[in-house]
Design a protein that fits this description.
Helix content is about 40%, strand content about 20%. By secondary structure, it is an alpha/beta fold. This is Glycoside hydrolase family 3 N-terminal domain-containing protein.
Length: about 900
């Protein structure tokens, strides 16, 4: 039957305007009826339809045979997504080669590689009868946060995306496939609202899109791309309002057709997506999509939805909502595309395995070359690579991997599903944290490869949003080196926190005579996970976690070849800027040289940040000096003017093996220049070199200046916490802390109600001084308090002239159940409590109350210790009392008269 006469009939025309899918690996009654009775012209095949090349070739030939027998004038367009990396519809371990994701290919730095891989991919598809590939992806990642595309995009630089996208398009064409750019106008910056009924929104204006995201689409149009898929996203910005881009004439007809001059085939997003079908309906959506300018309407799931699409299109014509001229326009564009890439001769005689066999060897070599060229070592500061020079065979290597859904493109996952009972090799110990959860198989195979390569013992366990658990801590302590894998940590934030926590544990570990346990962090998907975080010294990117990619990673880890991959555009540029900002000279604080500059810095910060840092009001360089404690402070300064731009004190409390990072203070006019980061890195490095150190602590009770992160402003606190998280400090947020002062002490009297309560509590109080009372007091402090208390009690016991301790005891057996420190402004450590130096009043200090958990009425005993402390200072002639550390209250210096 002649094409012209067939396409005079409206049903045949409408069939060519539809693109549909089905479930099953064989021809089903649904798809047979769509082709034979509804004259469907395009079939979309997905991974649910395809098992291997032999089955795929048969299925495709069966579909074309049905169309030919039903007198279709032109062959079916049969399309698939085959992006490589983690997005492949057709998998066959023998005949279909695995190639890197788009971003992985861009990491090779070669558009020739992009062309060769695209051509090889298309050749394999053409051999089984597929004639249309849904690619290339032309989205620019203009916002890397929470974007689902990830490594499916070539990157975040529009020019690079354009170059690699067009190279891939030319490769597809070279092999004879029709091409389709996606996802117009860009999925690179989407705002997700959370509900399945809410489509993601593009908030960029048309001007913003035009300068960045639309560039690759515009270039692809100029180079003759065959089709364009318009995404199922909303647009909300100045100049355009669209509930669904593919249903908007502003997006399709005006922007894509008229403004950008596209004359090829436009495909809608699937109209069965929940947000669209529930809000509009498939039939209504079909009418809107055609009127917007779409030529092919995609309905890829249910037969009922597909029938509704046909009915809706017919009703639109019958009710004059769609003109016949509009149908003719779309039909003409579709037939023109088919005439270039599709013929019955090719459709009914696919090459099959006979055509694929000669391609195996060159494609295997291309795959190996591509992966070896894409693996990117972003940093290796401590020269941990290759691991063969770092670990002996008798040392254990720990592999920590996230639980992920397996990729259909992974040979390992295919084999594991078909032979799940295969035994573990004796070289691998797998700690099955969550048995039965998906995603283990790919990484288990990676662990096996690591074990085989090194010829030594490998420990392997997974991690989840539960964070670092005892099993992880035990294995980290046991291993001599650690490898942590992450996958899209920007969207799976638990991976980010877990990795930073492991990094901190490794930094505090002791390995022979060397401080710090070797840690290698590998992003097996998005390189944005830790690319800009220099606190992780060795960082590698693979760009996908298929078996082929992870085998290339094994070869990199053990020095089989030198990796040459590069990061995407802006990351590559930002990394250079980031690194150039880390070169501030950090010097050891010299009191004679720097004291005046530090005082000026403190005054400047207090004047501008007084609400955040009230404790700086009475600070001077003397406030950071602690007697009998190892301390080393650091400055960043102008070596010509001696002005101090940044200051960071550090302390090492030997009794608890704790290193303390004091406040990082930076001149407000010189912030965001990495001065704080430079100080932080030098300070932490110095603390980690202290003999016997077991832990690091952010802030301390002495000096009484910085207890952690300032907390009076929620927004600023979140920003600072994020900064410290990025530096590797993880854990629960610190409690708000403040100091409280009681003035007019000479007229103060205690509450009679409290006296009665203390009598009922059956405790005795006494006042002691001197080191001879140390043992029972320090035993109480160490078993009943947080870190930092023991040092204060140690100072008080050593300074028996100006300090004392009130003890609370059970009269029956003399057991200590509470204590509090009293000190005067003349004590050896009062300089480190700036608030006690305020004004001209004679002020006494009360510090660090400790109550045993077995004491009973905690509140009454605490008040009793403080009240007796106030009375003691009153007796000694003080006119005011400072309670220098109060937890859980608003952090301001306040008055209290209610005791």
């Amino acid at each position: 039957m002649e094409a012209a006469s067939v396409f005079n009939k409206m049903d045949w025309k409408l069939g060519q305007l539809m693109m549909m899918g089905f479930d099953g690996t064989e021809v089903t009654p649904q798809i047979r009826r769509l082709i034979a009775d509804y004259h469907l012209g395009t079939v979309l095949l997905t991974a649910k339809n395809l098992r291997n090349v032999e089955q795929t070739a048969k299925l495709v030939l069966d579909l074309q045979t049905i169309a030919h027998a039903a007198n279709h004038p032109v062959p079916l367009a049969i399309a698939v997504d085959q992006e490589n990396g983690g997005v492949n519809s057709l998998f066959d371990a023998e005949y279909v080669q695995q190639f890197p994701s788009a971003m992985g290919v861009a990491a090779t730095g070669s558009t020739e590689m992009a062309f060769s891989i695209a051509k090889a991919t298309a050749e394999e598809l053409a051999a089984v009868g597929i004639n249309w590939i849904m690619g290339p992806c032309l989205d620019v990642l203009t916002n890397i946060k929470n974007q689902p595309l990830g490594v499916r995009s070539w990157g975040d630089d529009a020019d690079e995306v354009s170059r690699y996208g067009i190279a891939a398009m030319e490769g597809y064409k070279e092999a004879g496939l029709a091409t389709c750019g996606k996802h117009f106008p860009s999925y690179g910056n989407l705002e997700f609202l959370g509900s399945a009924l809410d489509v993601p929104v593009i908030t960029d204006s048309l001007d913003q899109l035009s300068t960045t995201a639309l560039g690759p689409f515009r270039d692809a149009i100029s180079q003759g791309i065959d089709a364009m898929m318009v995404g199922g996203c909303a647009m909300s910005s100045a100049g355009v309002e669209a509930m669904h881009a593919c249903l908007s004439d502003q997006v399709v007809d005006q922007l894509l057709r008229r403004d950008m001059g596209f004359k090829g085939v436009v495909i809608s997003e699937c109209l069965e997506m929940e947000a669209l079908s529930q809000n509009i309906g498939v039939g209504g959506g079909t009418v809107m999509a055609v009127n917007a300018g779409c030529d092919l309407i995609l309905v890829c799931r249910s037969f009922a939805g597909q029938q509704e699409a046909f009915s809706g299109l017919k009703a639109g014509i019958e009710n004059d909502l769609i003109t016949k001229e509009r149908i003719e326009e779309s039909l003409s564009r579709i037939l023109q595309m088919k005439s270039k890439c599709m013929s019955w001769e090719r459709a009914l005689a696919p090459g099959g395995i006979a055509a694929l066999s000669p391609l195996q060897s060159p494609h295997i070599k291309l795959s190996e070359k591509a992966y070896n060229s894409s693996i990117t070592v972003v940093r290796d500061k401590d020269r941990l690579l290759p691991l063969s020079s770092l670990l002996s065979q008798d040392e254990e290597l720990l592999l920590l991997t996230p639980l992920l859904h397996p990729l259909p493109a992974s040979a390992a996952s295919q084999r594991m599903r078909s032979n799940s009972s295969s035994p573990e090799p004796p070289a691998v110990t797998w700690q099955r944290d969550h048995p039965g959860m998906s995603g283990e198989s790919v990484f288990q195979e990676f662990g096996r490869s690591l074990a085989r390569q090194r010829g030594g013992r490998l420990l392997h366990t997974s991690y989840t949003a539960s964070g670092v658990r005892p099993v992880h801590e035990n294995l980290i302590n046991r291993a001599s080196a650690v490898i942590v894998l992450t996958a899209d940590a920007n969207r799976n934030l638990y991976q980010h926190g877990f990795t930073k926590h492991v990094s901190m544990i490794c930094k505090l570990s002791q390995r022979g005579d060397r401080r710090g346990k070797p840690l290698v962090v590998v992003s097996v998907s998005s390189p944005y996970d830790f690319a800009m975080e220099s606190s992780l010294g060795t960082y590698i990117c693979t760009f996908d976690f298929t078996e082929t990619a992870l085998q290339a990673l094994v070869n990199v880890l053990y020095g089989e070849f030198r990796p040459t991959g590069t990061l995407p555009g802006s990351l590559r540029q930002n990394q250079k800027v980031h690194q150039s900002k880390q070169h501030w000279l950090v010097e050891i604080y010299d009191q004679d040289r720097d004291a005046h500059g530090v005082d000026a810095l403190l005054m400047n910060i207090h004047e501008q940040d007084h609400e955040q840092l009230a404790n700086l009001a009475n600070c001077s360089h003397k406030s950071f000096r602690l007697k009998m404690v190892h301390q080393q402070h650091f400055v960043v300064r102008n070596t010509s003017t001696q002005a101090i731009y940044g200051f960071c004190p550090t302390y090492y409390f030997e009794s608890t093996h704790t290193g303390v990072l004091g406040p990082i203070l930076v001149d407000p006019e010189r912030r965001n220049l990495s001065i704080g980061q430079s100080l932080h890195n030098r300070a932490v490095k110095t603390l980690l070199q202290m003999q016997g150190i077991k832990r690091l602590q952010l802030g301390s009770r002495l000096p009484n200046i910085c207890f952690g992160i300032p907390s009076s402003d929620i927004t600023e606190r979140k920003r600072l916490r994020q900064w410290f998280d990025d530096m590797g400090w993880t854990g629960s947020p610190s409690r708000p802390v403040c100091s409280m002062a009681l003035f007019n002490l000479q007229t103060w009297t205690k509450s009679e109600c409290l006296t009665s309560s203390l009598h009922d509590a059956e405790v005795e109080f006494d006042l002691v001084q001197g080191a001879e009372h140390a043992r029972p007091i320090l035993d109480l402090v160490r078993t009943s308090s947080r870190l930092g208390m023991a040092e204060i009690y140690g100072f008080a016991l050593d300074d028996h002239v100006n300090s004392s301790i009130i003890r609370a005891k059970r009269p029956a057996d003399g057991t200590l159940v509470g204590a509090v420190v009293l000190y005067s402004a003349s004590s050896d450590w009062a300089d480190s409590v700036p608030a006690i130096q305020e004004g001209t009043q004679a002020m006494g200090g009360i510090s660090s109350p400790v109550i045993s958990p077995s004491a009973g009425d905690f509140s009454t005993l605490l008040q009793g210790l403080i009240v007796l402390g106030i009375k003691q200072h009153q007796k000694q002639g003080a006119t005011a009392v400072l309670l220098d550390y109060v937890s859980g209250l608003h952090p301001t210096l306040g008055k209290s008269t209610n005791l």
